[in-house]
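Observation: inputs received (chain + FE2/S2 (inorganic) cluster).
Thought: call the complex predictor directly.
Action: predict_structure
Action Input:
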Amino acid sequence: MSKRMFASTQFQPKEFVFNRENKFEEERIIAKYPIGCQASALLPLLDLAQRQHGGWLPKIAIRYVAGLLDVSEVRAFEVASFYTMFNLSPRGKFLVQLCRTTPCWLRGSDELREACAGHLGIKFDETTSDGVFTLVEVECLGACVNAPMIQINDDYYEDLDPKRIVELLDSLKAGVSVNIGSQNPCRRFSESAAGLTTLTDT
Ligand code: FES
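Observation:
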């Protein structure tokens, strides 16, 4: 798993508050939970704060969310530092999360890592000098059926090989739209790429 380190002081902003739009979203999220159980909104509000702050959570934002929900700061820090979907330091425009758990590994995640690292010129936990890509290693993302796969920002890209992953990275950088999901043209969603094999008639 990638390192979980808070950004150094020079990157930590002095202030954080939800903008006007996210204040409405904050109220909408908190209203989903019974009165007295607002602490349950910790995860979605940390996520909201991360999205507002360009994809990572500064310490001041974690404290801000803890204050909104009246939970202890240490509890909010525990949650933010435990879940790997929360980024604790600045990241590139595209966060490339490469799954290396067993099904993806058996299906070629090592070759994907070499292709990504070689093409981008970075190692895990590093960001390209132009600030476009950050590469991290993650555990199973739950799409093993179409292994090997990566997540880039909020989207999954599956059935990858080294050539296709390089094409994807280049397209994203160029602002060209790319298909999400399986990159195997023979596969629909997570169905067998060879077509139906059972329940083929009524
Ligand atoms: S092992 Fe990679 S998605 Fe499950």
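Thought: report the result.
Final Answer: The chain has two domains: 9-82, 94-182. Residues 99, 101, 103-104, 140-144, 147, 149 surround FE2/S2 (inorganic) cluster (CB under 6 Å).
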